[in-house]
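Suppose a colleague, Dr. K., hands you the sequence of a protein chain of 367 amino acids and asks what its three-dimensional shape might be. Before reaching for any lab equipment, you can write down a predicted structure in C-alpha coordinate form. Begin with the sequence itself:
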Amino acid sequence: MFKRTGFLTTAFIEKTFGGLSLVSFFLLTVLSFFYYKIPFVLWLVFFASLLICFFIYIARKRLFLYVIGRVFEAFITLFIVASITFVLLRMLPGGPFDQEKTLPPEIQANISAKYHLDKPLYWQYTHYLKGLFRGYLGESYKYTDRNITDILKDSLPVSVQLGVYALVLAFLLGIPLGVFSAQKQDSWKDRAAMIFSISGVSLPSFVMAPIFILIFSFYLGWLQPALWEGPLFYILPAVVLGLRPASVIARLTRSSVLDVISSDFVRTARAKGLDEKKVFYKHILKNAFLPVLTFSAPLIAGILTGSFIIEEIFAIPGLGQHFVNSVTNRDYPLILGALLVYSSLLILSNMIVDLLYAYFDPRIKVS
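The predicted structure, expressed as C-alpha coordinates, is then:
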Protein backbone atom coordinates (compact mmCIF):
# COMPACT_ATOMS: atom_id res chain seq x y z
CA MET A 1 0.00 0.00 0.00
CA PHE A 2 2.85 2.39 0.83
CA LYS A 3 4.60 1.79 -2.46
CA ARG A 4 1.41 2.31 -4.39
CA THR A 5 0.76 5.58 -2.61
CA GLY A 6 4.34 6.70 -3.23
CA PHE A 7 4.01 5.86 -6.90
CA LEU A 8 0.81 7.87 -7.19
CA THR A 9 2.44 10.81 -5.42
CA THR A 10 5.43 10.74 -7.74
CA ALA A 11 3.20 10.44 -10.81
CA PHE A 12 1.07 13.35 -9.57
CA ILE A 13 4.14 15.55 -9.08
CA GLU A 14 5.43 14.56 -12.51
CA LYS A 15 2.14 15.48 -14.18
CA THR A 16 1.93 18.73 -12.20
CA PHE A 17 5.36 19.93 -13.30
CA GLY A 18 4.73 18.64 -16.81
CA GLY A 19 1.56 20.70 -17.01
CA LEU A 20 3.40 23.72 -15.58
CA SER A 21 6.10 23.41 -18.22
CA LEU A 22 3.47 23.19 -20.99
CA VAL A 23 1.64 26.27 -19.69
CA SER A 24 4.87 28.27 -19.39
CA PHE A 25 5.90 27.14 -22.89
CA PHE A 26 2.57 28.38 -24.24
CA LEU A 27 3.02 31.74 -22.49
CA LEU A 28 6.58 32.06 -23.78
CA THR A 29 5.42 31.36 -27.33
CA VAL A 30 2.55 33.84 -27.17
CA LEU A 31 4.62 36.62 -25.58
CA SER A 32 7.48 36.19 -28.06
CA PHE A 33 5.07 36.14 -31.00
CA PHE A 34 3.48 39.45 -29.96
CA TYR A 35 6.93 40.96 -29.45
CA TYR A 36 6.61 41.43 -25.67
CA LYS A 37 9.63 41.33 -23.41
CA ILE A 38 9.61 37.95 -21.66
CA PRO A 39 10.25 38.18 -17.89
CA PHE A 40 13.16 36.17 -16.56
CA VAL A 41 10.89 34.51 -14.00
CA LEU A 42 8.89 32.86 -16.78
CA TRP A 43 12.06 31.42 -18.33
CA LEU A 44 13.09 30.17 -14.89
CA VAL A 45 9.70 28.52 -14.29
CA PHE A 46 9.76 26.85 -17.69
CA PHE A 47 13.25 25.36 -17.45
CA ALA A 48 12.94 24.45 -13.75
CA SER A 49 9.59 22.66 -14.21
CA LEU A 50 10.87 20.91 -17.33
CA LEU A 51 14.00 19.66 -15.58
CA ILE A 52 12.10 18.53 -12.48
CA CYS A 53 9.56 16.67 -14.63
CA PHE A 54 12.37 15.07 -16.64
CA PHE A 55 14.31 13.87 -13.58
CA ILE A 56 11.18 12.53 -11.88
CA TYR A 57 10.26 10.66 -15.06
CA ILE A 58 13.65 8.99 -15.55
CA ALA A 59 13.80 8.20 -11.83
CA ARG A 60 10.35 6.59 -11.88
CA LYS A 61 11.23 4.61 -15.00
CA ARG A 62 14.76 3.86 -13.68
CA LEU A 63 16.42 5.29 -16.76
CA PHE A 64 19.43 7.06 -15.24
CA LEU A 65 21.93 4.58 -16.69
CA TYR A 66 20.19 4.72 -20.05
CA VAL A 67 20.38 8.53 -20.17
CA ILE A 68 24.04 8.52 -19.10
CA GLY A 69 24.81 6.01 -21.84
CA ARG A 70 23.00 8.07 -24.46
CA VAL A 71 24.82 11.23 -23.39
CA PHE A 72 28.15 9.40 -23.71
CA GLU A 73 27.12 8.14 -27.16
CA ALA A 74 26.16 11.70 -28.10
CA PHE A 75 29.65 13.01 -27.31
CA ILE A 76 31.22 10.19 -29.33
CA THR A 77 28.90 10.93 -32.26
CA LEU A 78 29.65 14.66 -32.18
CA PHE A 79 33.38 13.92 -32.05
CA ILE A 80 33.09 11.69 -35.13
CA VAL A 81 30.96 14.26 -36.98
CA ALA A 82 33.42 17.07 -36.20
CA SER A 83 36.43 14.96 -37.22
CA ILE A 84 34.98 13.75 -40.52
CA THR A 85 33.71 17.20 -41.46
CA PHE A 86 37.05 18.80 -40.57
CA VAL A 87 38.97 16.39 -42.81
CA LEU A 88 36.51 16.61 -45.72
CA LEU A 89 36.59 20.42 -45.71
CA ARG A 90 40.37 20.38 -45.94
CA MET A 91 40.28 17.86 -48.78
CA LEU A 92 38.16 20.11 -50.99
CA PRO A 93 40.07 21.87 -53.79
CA GLY A 94 40.83 25.52 -53.22
CA GLY A 95 40.88 27.44 -49.98
CA PRO A 96 38.78 29.89 -47.97
CA PHE A 97 40.67 32.92 -49.27
CA ASP A 98 40.85 31.97 -52.96
CA GLN A 99 39.23 34.75 -54.96
CA GLU A 100 38.90 35.80 -58.57
CA LYS A 101 41.55 38.44 -57.89
CA THR A 102 44.66 36.74 -56.58
CA LEU A 103 46.05 38.22 -53.37
CA PRO A 104 49.73 39.15 -53.14
CA PRO A 105 51.82 36.31 -51.66
CA GLU A 106 52.72 38.35 -48.56
CA ILE A 107 49.06 39.05 -47.70
CA GLN A 108 48.11 35.44 -48.40
CA ALA A 109 50.89 34.26 -46.06
CA ASN A 110 49.81 36.65 -43.28
CA ILE A 111 46.18 35.53 -43.52
CA SER A 112 47.15 31.86 -43.49
CA ALA A 113 49.38 32.42 -40.46
CA LYS A 114 46.60 34.28 -38.59
CA TYR A 115 44.18 31.37 -38.98
CA HIS A 116 46.88 28.67 -38.68
CA LEU A 117 46.23 27.45 -42.22
CA ASP A 118 49.98 27.29 -42.83
CA LYS A 119 50.32 24.56 -40.21
CA PRO A 120 50.21 20.83 -41.02
CA LEU A 121 46.77 19.21 -41.13
CA TYR A 122 47.31 17.16 -37.95
CA TRP A 123 48.29 20.33 -36.05
CA GLN A 124 45.15 22.17 -37.25
CA TYR A 125 43.02 19.18 -36.25
CA THR A 126 44.44 18.87 -32.72
CA HIS A 127 44.27 22.66 -32.27
CA TYR A 128 40.60 22.63 -33.27
CA LEU A 129 39.79 19.74 -30.93
CA LYS A 130 41.51 21.48 -28.01
CA GLY A 131 39.38 24.57 -28.59
CA LEU A 132 36.26 22.43 -29.02
CA PHE A 133 36.74 20.74 -25.65
CA ARG A 134 37.10 24.19 -24.09
CA GLY A 135 33.89 25.35 -25.78
CA TYR A 136 35.73 27.55 -28.28
CA LEU A 137 34.61 27.07 -31.91
CA GLY A 138 37.14 29.38 -33.52
CA GLU A 139 36.91 32.66 -35.43
CA SER A 140 35.02 33.25 -38.64
CA TYR A 141 37.03 33.72 -41.83
CA LYS A 142 34.33 35.91 -43.39
CA TYR A 143 33.18 38.02 -40.40
CA THR A 144 36.44 39.52 -39.23
CA ASP A 145 37.22 39.39 -35.49
CA ARG A 146 33.95 37.57 -34.68
CA ASN A 147 34.08 34.14 -33.11
CA ILE A 148 31.62 31.44 -34.03
CA THR A 149 30.00 31.37 -30.58
CA ASP A 150 28.90 35.01 -30.93
CA ILE A 151 27.48 34.37 -34.41
CA LEU A 152 25.53 31.36 -33.14
CA LYS A 153 24.24 33.35 -30.14
CA ASP A 154 22.88 36.02 -32.49
CA SER A 155 21.39 33.76 -35.17
CA LEU A 156 20.28 30.56 -33.42
CA PRO A 157 17.53 32.20 -31.27
CA VAL A 158 15.91 33.57 -34.42
CA SER A 159 15.90 30.13 -36.07
CA VAL A 160 14.58 28.55 -32.87
CA GLN A 161 11.81 31.16 -32.64
CA LEU A 162 10.77 30.52 -36.24
CA GLY A 163 11.01 26.76 -35.67
CA VAL A 164 8.84 26.84 -32.55
CA TYR A 165 6.08 28.73 -34.38
CA ALA A 166 6.25 26.26 -37.29
CA LEU A 167 6.22 23.26 -34.93
CA VAL A 168 3.24 24.55 -32.96
CA LEU A 169 1.36 25.10 -36.22
CA ALA A 170 2.36 21.66 -37.55
CA PHE A 171 1.13 19.75 -34.49
CA LEU A 172 -1.97 21.88 -33.80
CA LEU A 173 -3.07 21.56 -37.42
CA GLY A 174 -1.77 18.09 -38.34
CA ILE A 175 -3.00 15.97 -35.42
CA PRO A 176 -6.62 17.29 -35.29
CA LEU A 177 -6.85 17.09 -39.09
CA GLY A 178 -5.64 13.47 -39.08
CA VAL A 179 -8.02 12.52 -36.26
CA PHE A 180 -10.94 14.24 -38.02
CA SER A 181 -10.11 12.49 -41.28
CA ALA A 182 -9.95 9.07 -39.55
CA GLN A 183 -13.29 9.64 -37.81
CA LYS A 184 -14.90 10.58 -41.16
CA GLN A 185 -13.29 7.71 -43.06
CA ASP A 186 -14.32 7.38 -46.74
CA SER A 187 -16.55 10.46 -46.57
CA TRP A 188 -16.15 13.63 -48.62
CA LYS A 189 -14.71 15.32 -45.53
CA ASP A 190 -12.02 12.63 -45.33
CA ARG A 191 -11.19 13.06 -49.01
CA ALA A 192 -11.05 16.86 -48.68
CA ALA A 193 -8.69 16.63 -45.71
CA MET A 194 -6.43 14.19 -47.55
CA ILE A 195 -6.37 16.39 -50.67
CA PHE A 196 -5.16 19.23 -48.46
CA SER A 197 -2.52 16.95 -46.92
CA ILE A 198 -1.29 15.64 -50.27
CA SER A 199 -1.07 19.20 -51.58
CA GLY A 200 0.97 20.27 -48.57
CA VAL A 201 3.37 17.36 -49.01
CA SER A 202 3.67 17.77 -52.79
CA LEU A 203 4.27 21.51 -52.94
CA PRO A 204 7.83 22.42 -51.87
CA SER A 205 8.34 25.39 -49.61
CA PHE A 206 10.21 27.42 -52.24
CA VAL A 207 7.05 27.25 -54.38
CA MET A 208 4.58 28.03 -51.58
CA ALA A 209 6.62 30.97 -50.26
CA PRO A 210 6.40 33.18 -53.40
CA ILE A 211 2.71 32.30 -53.83
CA PHE A 212 1.91 33.28 -50.24
CA ILE A 213 3.96 36.48 -50.58
CA LEU A 214 2.12 37.47 -53.76
CA ILE A 215 -1.32 36.80 -52.28
CA PHE A 216 -1.01 38.03 -48.69
CA SER A 217 1.63 40.76 -49.09
CA PHE A 218 1.26 42.30 -52.54
CA TYR A 219 -2.36 41.62 -53.52
CA LEU A 220 -4.10 41.79 -50.12
CA GLY A 221 -1.47 43.80 -48.22
CA TRP A 222 -2.15 41.99 -44.94
CA LEU A 223 1.34 40.71 -44.06
CA GLN A 224 4.95 41.74 -44.46
CA PRO A 225 6.93 39.88 -47.16
CA ALA A 226 10.34 39.80 -45.47
CA LEU A 227 12.52 40.52 -42.40
CA TRP A 228 11.87 39.51 -38.77
CA GLU A 229 10.61 42.50 -36.81
CA GLY A 230 7.21 41.66 -35.33
CA PRO A 231 4.02 39.55 -35.53
CA LEU A 232 3.15 40.60 -39.09
CA PHE A 233 6.62 39.43 -40.17
CA TYR A 234 6.36 36.08 -38.36
CA ILE A 235 3.16 34.69 -39.88
CA LEU A 236 4.15 33.99 -43.49
CA PRO A 237 7.47 32.17 -42.88
CA ALA A 238 6.02 30.20 -39.97
CA VAL A 239 3.01 29.09 -42.05
CA VAL A 240 5.12 28.18 -45.08
CA LEU A 241 7.59 26.26 -42.91
CA GLY A 242 4.88 24.49 -40.91
CA LEU A 243 2.44 23.45 -43.65
CA ARG A 244 4.50 20.58 -45.07
CA PRO A 245 5.17 18.85 -41.70
CA ALA A 246 1.53 19.48 -40.74
CA SER A 247 0.45 17.60 -43.86
CA VAL A 248 2.78 14.69 -43.10
CA ILE A 249 1.59 14.56 -39.48
CA ALA A 250 -2.05 14.56 -40.64
CA ARG A 251 -1.48 11.59 -42.95
CA LEU A 252 0.50 9.70 -40.28
CA THR A 253 -2.16 10.37 -37.64
CA ARG A 254 -4.98 9.23 -39.91
CA SER A 255 -3.33 5.95 -40.93
CA SER A 256 -2.18 5.23 -37.38
CA VAL A 257 -5.63 5.90 -35.89
CA LEU A 258 -7.24 3.60 -38.43
CA ASP A 259 -4.72 0.85 -37.60
CA VAL A 260 -5.27 1.15 -33.85
CA ILE A 261 -9.07 1.18 -34.17
CA SER A 262 -9.00 -2.39 -35.46
CA SER A 263 -6.79 -3.64 -32.59
CA ASP A 264 -7.94 -6.28 -30.10
CA PHE A 265 -7.56 -4.07 -27.03
CA VAL A 266 -9.89 -1.45 -28.57
CA ARG A 267 -12.55 -4.06 -29.25
CA THR A 268 -12.13 -5.32 -25.68
CA ALA A 269 -12.52 -1.80 -24.25
CA ARG A 270 -15.70 -1.29 -26.24
CA ALA A 271 -17.00 -4.71 -25.23
CA LYS A 272 -16.60 -3.69 -21.57
CA GLY A 273 -18.99 -0.83 -22.17
CA LEU A 274 -16.51 2.05 -21.85
CA ASP A 275 -17.56 5.45 -23.07
CA GLU A 276 -16.64 6.01 -26.74
CA LYS A 277 -14.80 9.26 -25.99
CA LYS A 278 -12.75 7.55 -23.28
CA VAL A 279 -11.92 4.69 -25.62
CA PHE A 280 -10.85 7.10 -28.34
CA TYR A 281 -8.74 9.52 -26.33
CA LYS A 282 -7.27 7.11 -23.78
CA HIS A 283 -6.72 3.99 -25.88
CA ILE A 284 -6.78 4.88 -29.56
CA LEU A 285 -5.21 8.33 -29.77
CA LYS A 286 -2.45 7.63 -27.24
CA ASN A 287 -1.28 4.53 -29.09
CA ALA A 288 -1.74 6.14 -32.50
CA PHE A 289 0.67 8.91 -31.52
CA LEU A 290 3.76 6.64 -31.71
CA PRO A 291 4.39 7.02 -35.49
CA VAL A 292 3.97 10.78 -35.13
CA LEU A 293 6.43 10.72 -32.26
CA THR A 294 8.96 8.87 -34.41
CA PHE A 295 8.60 11.46 -37.16
CA SER A 296 8.98 14.27 -34.62
CA ALA A 297 12.66 13.66 -33.84
CA PRO A 298 14.20 14.67 -37.21
CA LEU A 299 11.36 17.15 -37.75
CA ILE A 300 12.16 19.10 -34.58
CA ALA A 301 15.90 19.17 -35.25
CA GLY A 302 15.43 20.22 -38.86
CA ILE A 303 12.92 22.98 -38.15
CA LEU A 304 14.64 24.41 -35.07
CA THR A 305 17.92 24.89 -36.92
CA GLY A 306 16.03 26.83 -39.54
CA SER A 307 15.03 26.12 -43.08
CA PHE A 308 17.75 27.45 -45.36
CA ILE A 309 15.35 28.22 -48.20
CA ILE A 310 12.72 29.91 -46.02
CA GLU A 311 15.30 32.10 -44.28
CA GLU A 312 16.79 33.10 -47.62
CA ILE A 313 13.42 33.91 -49.22
CA PHE A 314 12.12 35.93 -46.26
CA ALA A 315 15.51 37.52 -45.42
CA ILE A 316 15.44 36.14 -41.88
CA PRO A 317 18.77 36.58 -40.01
CA GLY A 318 18.88 33.01 -38.68
CA LEU A 319 21.34 30.16 -38.59
CA GLY A 320 20.28 28.78 -41.98
CA GLN A 321 21.36 31.95 -43.74
CA HIS A 322 24.79 31.80 -42.10
CA PHE A 323 25.13 28.12 -42.96
CA VAL A 324 24.48 28.76 -46.66
CA ASN A 325 26.87 31.72 -46.74
CA SER A 326 29.54 29.80 -44.85
CA VAL A 327 29.54 27.05 -47.48
CA THR A 328 29.82 29.62 -50.27
CA ASN A 329 32.62 31.48 -48.48
CA ARG A 330 34.47 28.33 -47.37
CA ASP A 331 34.18 29.57 -43.79
CA TYR A 332 35.37 26.32 -42.17
CA PRO A 333 34.79 27.23 -38.49
CA LEU A 334 31.26 28.51 -39.18
CA ILE A 335 30.39 25.39 -41.20
CA LEU A 336 31.62 23.18 -38.36
CA GLY A 337 29.82 25.23 -35.71
CA ALA A 338 26.47 25.18 -37.54
CA LEU A 339 26.82 21.47 -38.28
CA LEU A 340 27.55 20.66 -34.62
CA VAL A 341 24.48 22.63 -33.54
CA TYR A 342 22.30 20.72 -35.99
CA SER A 343 23.82 17.37 -34.95
CA SER A 344 23.33 18.18 -31.25
CA LEU A 345 19.66 19.04 -31.75
CA LEU A 346 19.11 15.89 -33.81
CA ILE A 347 20.73 13.69 -31.14
CA LEU A 348 18.84 15.43 -28.32
CA SER A 349 15.47 15.17 -30.07
CA ASN A 350 16.06 11.47 -30.83
CA MET A 351 16.90 10.76 -27.19
CA ILE A 352 13.81 12.61 -25.94
CA VAL A 353 11.60 10.73 -28.40
CA ASP A 354 13.06 7.40 -27.28
CA LEU A 355 12.33 8.30 -23.67
CA LEU A 356 8.76 9.30 -24.51
CA TYR A 357 8.06 5.95 -26.18
CA ALA A 358 7.79 4.30 -22.76
CA TYR A 359 5.33 6.99 -21.63
CA PHE A 360 2.92 6.61 -24.55
CA ASP A 361 3.19 2.80 -24.66
CA PRO A 362 4.09 1.06 -21.36
CA ARG A 363 4.74 -2.16 -23.28
CA ILE A 364 7.90 -0.58 -24.69
CA LYS A 365 10.87 -1.02 -22.37
CA VAL A 366 13.75 1.43 -22.71
CA SER A 367 16.96 -0.13 -21.48
